[in-house]
Amino acid sequence: MRTNRGTISERLYRALLRLLPFDFRDEFGSEMEEVFREQQAAAKQERGIMNLLRLWWDTLAGIVRLAPREHLSILRQDAGYALRLMRKEPVYTIAAVGILGLGIGVNTAVFSVVNSVLLRPLPYADGDRIVTLRQQAARAGVADMKFSVQEINDYRQRNRTLEGLVEYHSMRFTLFRKGEAQRVRTGVVSAGFFDFFGVRPVLGRTFQPSDDRPGAPAVLLLSYEFWKQSENGDPGVVGRTYEMNDRVHTVIGVLPPLPQYPNENDVYMATSACPFRSSAQAITNREARLMTVFGRMKPGVHPEHCGEDVAMIAQRLEQEHPESYPKAAGYTATSSALQEELKRNARPMLLVLLAAAAFVLLIACANVANLTLARIARRQRELVVRTALGAGSGRLLRQLSTEGLILALLGAVVGLGFASESRNLLVQFVERLTPRAREIRIDGAVLVFTILCAVATSLFCGLAATLYSRENIASGLKDSGTQTSAGRRPQLVRSALIAAQVAFSYVLLVGAGLMSRTLVNLEHVDAGFVAQRVLAMDLNLNWSKYNSDQQWRDVSRRLLEQAQGQPGVISAAVTSGFPLDPDGTPGGFPQRFRVEGHLPDKVVPVSPVRAATPDYFRTLGIPVLAGRGFAETDAETSLPVAVINRTLARHYWRDEDPVGKRIKFDGTDNWITIVGVVGDVREFGLAEDPKDQLYLPNSQNPSPGNLLLRTSGDPMNLVQQMRRAVLDVDPQAAITRVETLEQVRAESISAPRVAASLFGLFAILALVIAVAGIGCALALSVRQRTREIGIRASLGANSWDLVRMVVRQGMWLVFLGLALGLPCALALTRGLETLLFEVAPTDPVTFAGVSAVLAGAALVACYVPARRAARIDPMVALRCD
Amino acid sequence: MRKNEEISLQAPVTPAMFNVLLALVDGEKHGYAILKEVAEQTEGEVRLSTGTLYGIIKRLLAEGLIAESRTRPAAERDDPRRRYYRVTDAGREVAAAEAVRMEKLIARARAKRLIKALRPA
After folding, report:
1. Among all residues of chain A, which has the CA nearest to that of B56?
2. Read out DSSP for B43-69?
3. Which of A71, A734, A858, B46 could form a disulfide bond with B42, CB atoms 3.0-4.6 angstroms apart?
């Protein structure tokens, strides 16, 4: 069968030839077709179909073998030529590699985080089957209630979808090593905990069921970091003993350097060694909720079925123990994949940063494409000559693309360096969002991503070069090729690239502006307390020495007396916690109370409770709005009293005066009288609205956890004398953390600060790249229009006219870019909504400010080449060819 | 001889390239004629595909061992789509050097009775 384009086999052969590079086809293609035709005819004539099949097989194999060899050889030639050219133009090469390096580096760095935190599976055995169990009392406002021992036993025995259930909680204990007190974060876990996660120790063994039995000898596992720091990585550490909680603890092993979930701990102990977990109260009281519970789903179980199973158990517990799960609390239980839990907080921020990084790369690409076009314009004569000498336009385009690819790959190398250098900074940032931060590293997936970025970049730049050079070379063949006005399409391409850079920069700058305003709002939000000149000390008293409330009261009093006696201290308070305390546990034991006169089952108010000595409110500058604060007269034996915050007062007494009203903690018979209302404090985060808060006098509920001091001078000057003062009271006290409340406040917004800084950095990079791009493009345009400008000048245009002409040309593109960027920014900033505080994603002030900044910077960038245009001497310009 | 050795060091030829050079030693030929000559001379043992042949032709042209012939056959026997190739002096020297190298190899194999052992006379 023969058509105009030959027989089917001839067409097939022609298609096969397309595997070869086109210059090889240009050179030998038609000849090869002819030879194949003759071979085919001979084969048919000689031995028929078998011979024909063999011919096809040999032909196919020959071309498939030849094609990669030829492509590689041409690539080698092109690459060699490109490298020679790049060496000749070091300024262009360094600028392009640097800009692409930044663009690719930013993306590589952010992707290394996204890959480690969001994409990679957990580094634990069957990590995708591990779930976290959660109990909630929705109507009482408790989202994460923890589990009691009795509840853990119930879930362990009754579930049908889990093949293992382990418990965890973390506490701080004082560890005595060679007589020295050290406060350690201690993970308390059930025996199978490490086997459950598939963690093998680097030394010794992990916990066995015998370690978990009541009365078993106390044993400890050291975290890798603690072993390295405190024991200098001594391999003989197994068998060493420490004293903790008045018991001797023996080291049985060292854990590997794996990320620890849910928290980082220094040491781990079995549940039987924890004085709280093993106490009769914790074991018998269904409401002594302290533990986090992990389960592993049986193979093939769907997470939804597991959730239903857990919810069913909760329902039955609610029926069986109505006293522990009042109907009004809205008690439920759920399960969620641990992997999801760990990335939930980080996901929105990381995706936003990835998008921002992508914008930086787009801007870098547009900029380098423009630089490349400017370079092609300079090389136009060379390209025209090569075309005239017979180099096909395809050949030239491939040469340009190879140059682009080499630039992008060099950019990728720079980018990888940038990403690996910024790893530590990123870990510090991501640590605030997820415990998986320590897993961040540059692995195979990140390398592939970087190479893909480089290839995409070179494709983008190559596309621009293609659009440009086709017309430019063609027009170059017609005229002299330099100082004339450029063709219409090349001009359009370059204008579009500039407008795109402005639009992308605008989106990034708006994002950065919104994040910065969020940070400023957070920094200036009224937290409800005065943080200036307040020192907060963590008091880690050896609790096993204090057996009664009276002893706690005594030590509190002595601490307070010591503190108040120090020169420079204006007021002092002993308290169970302080606002924005990073170690504070808002989700700990929910404290429920009944309000006198309210129906017992109508609501179950839950409130964080803080014990404090009388000067607490004065020390923190919390205003007393009604009634009074605590007084020395609120003693152990006097009437039980409480102070509440304004939110709690409004919540339960609306327009009534709560002073004089009474409340009672669930399960107790003592009515507590409210004696005062104080101002609201943002206890759990500056971005979080104040919650109900209840204060009790330390004298009636002694729990000296912290010492707060308001000072007349710099609070840090008091640290040494306060340490000595505390040790005078209790020589075994460990003071691990001393901070000013200003530091605490600043730390509490470190995540938004780092986010705003990163966003700001990206935006500044984008602005600089874009503005430099506008300036370079205009400078090139002025150079190309030298003769036209000369004619205008000789016809009477003054320098101001010329400046105006060039600036108008540049600013028109800037305004076009702003017009394109505005709807993009309006659409994209909605994605930031959850990360913003007291600023709308469409905040007009930010949008207007960013427009002004961008337009101003662009105006400066336009003015420089415009001045150059104004200085062009008409006589010199007209003599140019 | 010394010159031949230098050329052979600069441009070592593969067996397929050697076959193409040999096919051109006794006169210029077009692509299909080279294929046929190689197949005939090797009694069908070496059958070059078009891909292999033109890969070799490109390399031999680049190394200056063959050249495109300017003379063409008489118009009635000519096909304008065909190109004719001839071996250059350098190509002839390389082919000769390769032949000598092979001859020496065969002589060594004979001296060690390798060929005899494989193919008893």
Report:
1. A66
2. TTS----HHHHHHHHHHHHHTTSEEE-
3. B46
pLDDT tens-digit series, residues A126-148: 888 999 998 887 666 566 778 88
Greater model confidence, A516 or A380: A516
Encoded tokens for A154: 């119930």
Q: How many CA atoms lie within 13 A of A634 on its CB side?
A: 26
- Check: complex ipTM more than 0.90: no
A37-51, A700-714, A740-754, B14-28: range with lowest mean pLDDT: A37-51
Q: Are A509 and A850 in contact (CB under 8 A)?
A: yes
* pTM score above 0.80: no
Minimal-distance CA residue of chain B relative to A25: B54
Question: A32 vs B54: CB contact, 8 Å cut-off?
Answer: yes
Q: Is residue A488 packed enough to be buried (19+ CB in 10 Å), middle (13-18) or exposed (0-12)?
A: exposed
Residue of B nearest to A13 (CA): B50
Backbone phi, then psi, for A46, in 5-degree steps?
A: -75, -65
A468-473, long-range: CB < 8 A, 24+ apart: A468/A373, A468/A376, A468/A493, A468/A494, A469/A376, A469/A383, A469/A393, A469/A396, A469/A397, A469/A400, A470/A393, A472/A376, A472/A377, A472/A380, A473/A380, A473/A383, A473/A384, A473/A387, A473/A393, A473/A396
Q: Do B51 and A65 touch (CB under 8 A)?
A: yes
**A275 neighbors A247 (Cβ within 8 angstroms):** no
Do B49 and A38 make contact, defined as CB atoms within 8 angstroms? no
The residue type at A382: E
What are the extents of the domains in chain A? 2-77, 127-343, 347-524+750-879, 541-733
What's the pLDDT tens digit per position in B30-68?
999 999 999 998 988 888 999 999 999 999 999 999 999
**Interchain CB contacts (distance < 8 Å): A and B:** 60
Domains for chain B: give ranges and CATH numbers.
2-118 (1.10.10.10)
Q: Indicate yes or no: CB of B50 within 8 angstroms of CB of A35.
A: yes
